[in-house]
Amino acid sequence: MKIAIAGAGAMGSRIGLMLHQAGNEVILIDRWPDHIKAIRENGLIGEFEDHKVVAHLPIYSPEEIVEDHTSVDLVVALTKSMQLRAMFQDIQPIISEKTFVFCLLNGLGHDETLSEFIPRENIIFGTTTWTAGLAGPGHASLVGTGSIEMENLDPSGKAFTLEVLEVFQKAGLNPVYSNNVRYSIWKKACINGTLNGLCTILDCNIADFGSLSIAGDLIETIVGEFASVAEVEGIILDQPQVIQAIEATYDVKAQGLHFPSMYQDLIRNHRKTEIDYINGAVWQKGMNYQISTPYCAFLTQLIHAKEELLEAK
Fold first, then answer.
1. 9-23 burial, b for 16+ CB within 10 Å, e for fewer?
2. Residue ranges per structural domain of the chain
């Protein structure tokens, strides 16, 4: 299968590399000049737990996707949420009427953005528990294992979605087909909507947050706000189950020593965050539905204030 990775950061590098190793034709698309330069000169370095690989994959900036590029079978969307629209505006030359998009972004509302560029029957949504990091430009740190859940937005897209599932299975990405991926997306949004923003504001890792006496109250309140909004959209979240999933990440043998991606973006790299697509999305939806979400609103405002203080780009 010919596959484009739209957003070849840490996670995009991991998925692109594993798909390449399974024999697929993979191209990477990213906006970071140093990352592009490093991969072109030295290949994509993948540092697994017990071995290292170097893959010489073609990589382009979105602006370099010009008309003479042939279309791809699948685009895996792994940009930051706020970069999704601009990315798909730029990569239209590789998208044909037969091209599918598999969206693995965190957050909410991406179906509306992608529907501007892709027919709904060609959109696949999913979530993943894989993790990845970048040790530097062109150098991905790929420890641990994970899985991917996927489902087509429109029933007519199921046949190709199952083809994608087979391709991802052969690549060792542990995919499963879901009959309710929207529930999983909301559940993961709850995890991100608590740990990402709170660890960033409190300047701590997940285990340190979990050790706080007030952690349980904060988690319960924020999950409650997510659940109230999700219910209006037909998603009934099992709040105790979601809270249990969040608390399971506190274990230092699991993800406890991990600093969430929002922390890494803002505190370490002074980059703008995806808060508007997580807590901010719940706040906005809540206003539309006349549901009060004060914790999501306040956390969104605090993160934006921190972005200003750090002059995030």
1. bbbbbbbbbbbbebe
2. 2-179, 182-309
